Amino acid sequence: MVGKSATEGGGDETLDLFLKIGLDERTAKNTVANNKVTANLTAVIHEAAVTDGCDRTVGNLLYTVATKFPTNALVHRPTLLQYITSLKIKIPAQLEAAFLFLTTTASDNLKIDEFEAACGVGVEVSEEDIERSVDEIFEENKAVILDQRYRTNVGELFAHVRKKQPWADPKVVKKIIDTNLYALLGERTAADNEKPVKKKKEKPVKAEEKAVLVETAPEKPTEEEINPFLIFPSPDQNFKVHTEIYFSDRPVLRACNSKEILDKHLKVTGGKVHTRFPPEPNGYLHIGHAKAMFVDFGLAKEQGGGCYLRFDDTNPEAEKKEYIDHIEEIVGWMGWEPFKITYTSDYFQELYELAVELIRRGRAYVDHQTPDEIKEYREKKMNSPWRDRPIEESLKLFDDMKKGLLEEGKATLRMKQDMQSDNFNMYDLIAYRIKFTPHPHAGDKWCIYPSYDYAHCIVDSLENITHSLCTLEFETRRASYYWLLDALELYQPYVWEYSRLNITNTVMSKRKLNRLVTEKWVDGWDDPRLMTLAGLRRRGVTSTSINAFVRGIGITRSDNSLIRLNLLEYHIREELNKTAPRAMVVLNPLKVVITNMDAAVMDLDAKKWPDAPADDASSFYKVPFSKVVYIEQSDFRLKDSKDYYGLAPGKSVLLRYAFPIKCTEVVLGDDNETVHEIRAEYDPSKKSKPKGVLHWVSESSPGANPLKVEVRLFDKLFNSENPAELGDWLNDLNPHSKVVITDAYAVPSVKNAAVGDSFQFERLGYFVVDPDSSPEKLVFNRTVTLRDSYGKQGK
User: Fold this and answer.
1) Each residue of 358-379: pLDDT tens digit?
2) Which residues, listed in sequence order, are joined to residue 310 by a DSSP beta bridge?
3) CA–CA gap between residue 437 and residue 242 (Å, rounded)
4) Which one, of 166, 97, 161, 153, lies nearest residue 131 by Cα?
5) Which residues are catalytic?
6) Cα(756)–Cα(771) distance, rounded to whole angstroms?
7) Which residues form the tRNA synthetases class I (E and Q) anti-codon binding domain (predicted)?
8) Could you report the per-residue pLDDT of 403-414, keeping only the tens digit for each?
C-alpha cells in the first residue's frame, strides 16, 4: 500500500518525511499528531514520488492537496500531483482552480485542455504585466490611498490585482504593491503608526440621501452562502465514483452504483432527495445535533425531498424511552418535520438475513476472541485463529448465537475485511454480538444485536437514502461502509462528511455530559449551562437563533475547528433584540427616598421597544413612580469620579422614563461604611440634563415592596476554552457559572409573565421565565448579557 513504510516506521520517520518537503517543524509536528492528515499527506508524497524531498513551494502545495483535495475526484489526484511536481501548477490560485474543476469533473474522464485552461497552465505573467495592473489599480483608488495612507487595506488591493491577473505570483504582487505605496506616500510618519480614532456615530441619514447609500451597501452574499446545499450532487448522479478503497490483496474498489441498481433506486424515490437524521437514543441532544439536523433536514427540505428521523437503537443497554421521547419532541421544536420516523430495530430481521448471506459469500465468520484479544490482534494486524473456519461452521454458530445457545461474550460475528489495510476501520469489524438484554423497541425477541458499523450502511441502503451525511470522525469508516454494501451488492448512497460543531467553554461528548448529569455537577439534562438543546431552550435560546448560528458557520470540512461561544451569543442577541419586550428589574436593590415628593404614586409610560411610536399605546407599559424607588447598589458610589455616570453625593442622574434626581444625603449602616439608604430630590420640571441614566423600580403603593422575583445569572460552565482536552476536566468547572439572586425587584408589568416569555431587562441582559416559577414567585434565567463582544471583535 502507498505510504505504508512511512507510517509503520514510527513518528520520527514520518516527521522526517514531512520536513523533507519543506514543512516548518511546527506544522510538521502538528500534522503528525493528526492521524487523518498524516495518512493523506504520506500517500500524496509517495504518489508525487518526492520521498527524497522537494522545494518548499512544491511541498506547501502538496500539503494543501492532502488537506483539501475533493474526495469525489480521487482518481485524478495523481494527475494533479504531476502538474505540481513539474511546476505547471505552482501557485495557490492555480491549485484552488484545479480543486474547483476536479470537484465538478468528479470521476468522469479528465479533459486535459479544459483543465489546463481553467488552471492557467502555461500562462506566464511577467513582472511588467503585474506592474501595469498594479499601476491601474493605484490610479483607480488613488484618492482613498492618499486619505488612508498606510492604513489602506492591502488585501483589497490584492483582490483587485487577482481579478486582472489571476495567475500572478502573489509574492511578486506583494513586492510591487509595497513599492508603489512607498513611491506614492513616502516614509511612514508618526501619524501612520497611531491607532485610528473612532468616529462618533453619525446622525440618521435623511430620506433624500438614502438612495446614495444603496450603491455602497455591503456586497450580496454568495449563492453558496444563501444556499449551502448547492455542494451536493443530485440523486441521479449517484453512478459516479467518488470514493476509492485500496486493499492489500485485491484491486481497488471504486464505489458507485450500476445503472440497474440506480434505476431501481430512482424508481422507488421518484428521484427525490432522501436523507436521515440517525441519533442514538442514549442521552439528550446537544447543539452539535442541531448542525446535523440543519444539514440532514435542511438538504431534504431545500431539494423538495424528505428526511427520516431514524433512531439508531442497536445498543439496548444504553437506550431509554425517555431519550426517544425527548429526541422526537426536540426535533419538532427545532422546526423540522420528519418524512418518517423509523428505528434500526425495525430492520433487525433483514439485517440478520443479510448477515447470513454475508457468511455464505465468505465475507464474515464467527469469532471467539475476547475483546482484549481482538484489540491486540488488530493492533498487530494479525488474523483471528477462527478467520478461515468453514462457512458451514460459521452459519451453524451464528444460528446458535441467535437461539441463545452461546453465552454472552463467547462469540461475535466479524466481517472478513482486510487486516493488512492502512485503515484501522477495515480490521474485521464486529457485525453482531450477544446481549441477553430486552430491547426498548423490539422487546425480548432478539439476543444478538448488530453493531453500528454493520447496521448503519445497510439501513441507509434499505431506506433508499440518497445522501448519507455525517461528521468527519466517521470519514475513515467510509471504506467499511462501501465494502459492506459492495459485498452484499446493495444500493450505495452518496456519503459526505462535514466538520462537527465544537464550541468553546463546554463539553459535547455524551459520555462527559452524562457524567455531569449523573454526578450532579449540573441540575439535569436541561440545565441552562449545558449546550444540550433542552438546556439552551430553558435558558431562553430560540430554535431560530440556533439555526441562524449553524447556517452562519456553514457546512465545512474544516476538522478540529472550535467555534467561539460569543458567536452563538451574537445570533441569540440578534433575535431577542427584535422580539423581547423591555422591562426594568433591579438585582441588588438600594433604597432611595425622594424627600421633595408627596406620597402620591404616578403612573409613567415606559417603552417596550426602543423605537416605539408615540401614538401606539401597545408599545408602552405603565410603571409606578413614587416617593420610594430602588436602584442597583452598583449604581451608587460614595466617591465620584470623572468617568463615572452613576449616582454619588451631590450628583444628579436621570431615572429612565421618569425624572432627574440628585443625591442630598447618604444613610450609612452601623459599620459606618455600608450604604443603607439614599435621600434625594427630584426635578419635576426635567430642566437638569444629567449624563447618567439608571434603571429603577418603585413602590407601587406607599409602604408596599415592589414585585419580588428570583433571578439566575448563568455564565460559561468551564473556565478553559477547550476543557475536553484537559485530563482533569471536571476541575475546570467555573464555580461562578450559576449565581442565584433571590430578592430582586421587578416592575409590575412582568407579574403575569408565562413560562418561556422573554424580556430584555434594561441595562442587564435578556431573561426568560423558568419552569420553576410559581404563582407566588417568578424565576428568571439570564439568556445572554447585553454586551455584544462578538460584534465588537468584528468576527
Assistant:
1) 999 999 999 999 999 999 999 9
2) 342
3) 40
4) 161
5) 280, 500, 510
6) 8
7) 693-770
8) 999 999 999 999
